[in-house]
Amino acid sequence: MKAREADNTKRIGAALLRVALMLMVLNAVAASALADAIAIKREVRIEGDEIRLSDVASLTGEDAEAYGSVVIATFAAGASEMTISVDQVRKALNAKRINWARVSLKGFETCRAMRKTAEKSSVNGPVVSPVAQPVAARSGEHTAPIANPVEEVRPGSPETLRARLMTWLEQVTGAPAADFRIESSTRDETMLDAVAQLGKVSFVTSAAQPIGRVPLTIEQYEGEKLVKTTRVTLSIARRRLVVAAIKAVNRGDTIGPGDVEIRELFIDRPGDEPATRLEAVIGQQATSALREGQVVSAGDVQPSLLVERYQIVRVKVVTDTIVVNLEGRAMEDGSRDQVIKVRNESSRQVFLAKVAGPRLVIVTHAETTNETKQDEKASSASADDINPRARTPIPRK
Length: 397
Known about the structure:
Layout lengths: L1 H34 L1 E4 L2 E4 L3 E3 H4 E4 L1 H4 L5 E4 L6 E5 H10 L8 E4 L2 E6 L18 E2 L10 E2 L13 H13 L6 E4 L2 H7 L8 E4 L7 E11 L2 E21 L14 E8 L16 E3 L14 E3 L1 E3 L4 E7 L4 E8 L3 E2 L3 E5 L6 E8 L2 E6 L6 H7 L19
Parallel strand pairs: 1-7, 2-8, 19-24
Antiparallel strand pairs: 1-4, 3-5, 6-8, 9-10, 11-14, 12-13, 13-14, 14-15, 16-17, 18-21, 19-20, 20-22, 22-23, 23-24
């Protein structure tokens, strides 16, 4: 019997040792996955025909750097640029049997790769290289921004419609061009990459704001003469620091500090303005259920109720020389600083008071309202008409 118990103890000990070793391995893999990353860049310039992973992505960690020489795509003959998608990168790396448990893929959905051309003489003036702008991770990922190289700008050189469009977005929204992500059909991509007229280019849209699915009419002029009209439909997203739910919140719940956080995301849905400050959301009541990861908009929250209809509340009547404390019954729901009707249960008089805290109001106007008689009549209603959350039913006359 003792020998059997000893054997069982040995087997249990061996099993626990194996579990501990497996946990150590999993922790090591998780740490490696966090450390090694491939972040797709927004826009790059490349020498030669082959486009390699190290050209279009920032590589962090040995496992990621080991795939830097992988060819993702090749420029077609005579082509000056092409778009590399995150799916192309993933497919090329899958062909090399990459271990995705050790490397994460993030960054932009697409990278615009442009072939470098030989430097020209100073006829067109000096080359101006703007400072690289910080660029966010993909929507839905909460990681630190990375820096990308940007296209060189040559004074006097022809501009594409895309470049003019980015300038227009900057003027309309006040946000830098690097904060926008634009997607469109292949036909519209070709139109945007065409060289614009040297004259004025006008962008006209029926959308209230250039976010989401945006129809655009592009008008190009030579002097005052309209020479070309192009119509495109674009999906435009703007990168912003917004409040997002980090876990599900039920409708009616009060939002706490552990329910939301600030994230840098691409917003592609027009409509309600997203909340951008935690203090504007924390302590508020959710007007609808919030999913984990959902961006919180102004319409998703409202001030939490401190007083509910038919509750008995403490009333402070403040004058220059005296403060009187009494009880009354709230005739309306109320949030902080909201003025509501309250009834004195002794005199049946209805007056206005401002909500100052949980079940606490301060009198702002002691004048009886025109609804006093109606409220007296309502007080004779049966107890079934009273909110069940009230402490006591309204007494019958």
